[in-house]
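If you are new to this repository, start here. Below is one unmodified record pulled from the training split, so you can see the exact layout before writing a loader.
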Amino acid sequence: MGRVIVEVMPKPEILDPQGKAVVGALPRLGFTQFMSVRQGKRFELEVAGPVTPEILAAAREAAEKMLANTVIEDVVAVFEDRAA
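And here is the target side for that same chain:
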């Protein structure tokens, strides 16, 4: 069994209130080295067999058609999870 990871992030021009909340909380916990945070989504897609280039292409197509709201989000990565 294989697994494909799809990562989706808000487009740079879109406000990210969750990221702003996290970056505001980090200094209170002693993490002062981080200047900004953007929060995205991660999808794990399992397949019955090995991950092939065709599977990765289908995962990218699914990401662009359904997993991401392409008006406000970008698909930033589609890759095989080799640790699976």
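Two things worth knowing about this chain: The longest helix spans residues 53-67. Helices lie at 17-25, 53-67.
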